[in-house]
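Archive maintenance. Older records in this collection stored only the sequence; we are now back-filling the structure field for every entry so that each record is complete. The fields below show one back-filled record exactly as it appears after the update. Entries are processed alphabetically, and FAD-dependent pyridine nucleotide-disulphide oxidoreductase is next in the queue.

ARCHIVE ENTRY
Title: FAD-dependent pyridine nucleotide-disulphide oxidoreductase
Organism field: Chlorobaculum parvum
Length field: 425
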Amino acid sequence: MKTKPHVLILGGNFAGLQVARHIRDHVKPEDASVTVVDKRSYLLFIPNIPIEILENKNPDSSMQLPLAPVLDKDETRFIQAEVLDIDVESKKVTIQPTERPGATTDVLTYDYLVIALGNRLAFDKIDGFAEHGHTVSDGFYGNKLRHYLHEGGYKGGPIAIGSARFHQGTKGKLDFVPMAKAACEGPPVEMALSLASWLKHHEMGGPQKVTIFTPADLIAEDAGKKIVGQLLEIAGGMGFGYKNKLEDIKQIGKDGIEFANGESIEAELKIIFPDWVPHEFLKGLPICDEKGFVITNKQLKNPDYPEVYAAGDAAACTVPKLGSIGHHQSYIVARQLARDLGALSDEEADSELYSPEVICYGDMGDGKAFYIHSNVWYGGDIEILKMGKLYYDLKVAFKTSYFAMGGKVPYWQWKMGSWMGDKIL
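Back-filled structure field:
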């Protein structure tokens, strides 16, 4: 009896889950087995955590989508485990189950491998963050900030919101992918705007208390100079402070932040977005750049090991580290795998290759959001910024529909979402 090809997907958040689900658009369970490995048993819907925090809701209660039930629908196996090692020569992955402490390691083999493990958020590399920093990256830190804001910890002092320096690799870099000094700066802009609204409604001030900072020449530089200029003009008119070219965070203290260029910002509340670094076991692998991000071509497969794919934050070509980019990459990877498995032609699989666009919906408070759609950073001609209540409704509705569909957003719906954002006033 012939053994079915095995597709092993490492990571079950936006990119990994979508790849797993969309493979089944083309490849039946009897023609290939698919396994997803993630150390968590759920997808964490990170983009909407700030909304929950400011509304004093527990993000752990609303931002988690269980993986096993939705993957069962596709006859896809789910393993809750941490990835310890990848051997691309023998096509083996070493894992350690995380459901209960004390598990022994195990080894999985594959015919095709998709690395969609996201990254490590390097808070542990920021001096003083543990004692004096806050962020919105997950349920733990989200709830820590929620309790601080809503239970009297915050006394009404100045606020600083911004990014540490991102360190990007250059080995195997695609020509159209720029070098970035911050991993993703839509979230700092969103957090600043929505928190200023929260301050106003709690009679604790407003934008004049908030300073936005960046290591780059421009905040959110991936949106393009025109859009950033519009955002800075709006923010400046509202009273926000702004500091750029700070190089990196040197130290966070009780009363503020010191930066590598010698400047400092006074702040009682410090909301930080760290460097995004690869997982340690990826560093030094022949499929990775000098930092540990997985090198791919426009088909999102490694040039030297074409059975290895990468999508989402683990991929070197994902710049900025933006959820919508990983989401879009998942469609490409699923089609490429379907071609490898004999279910699609070359023409069908290559009908759309990696050509990144920044698509971002950001909460502004007061039931409003901004919408950015841009590819000028990559040499394109799309540069759209819009604001209003409709875009907040679209942001919230996407999370609702994503959970209802078990993370399987049809390609046509994905394209319609950006069309609506572009066209509707």
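Update note: The chain has a mean pLDDT of 96. DSSP finds eleven helices and 21 strands in the chain.
Entry marked complete.
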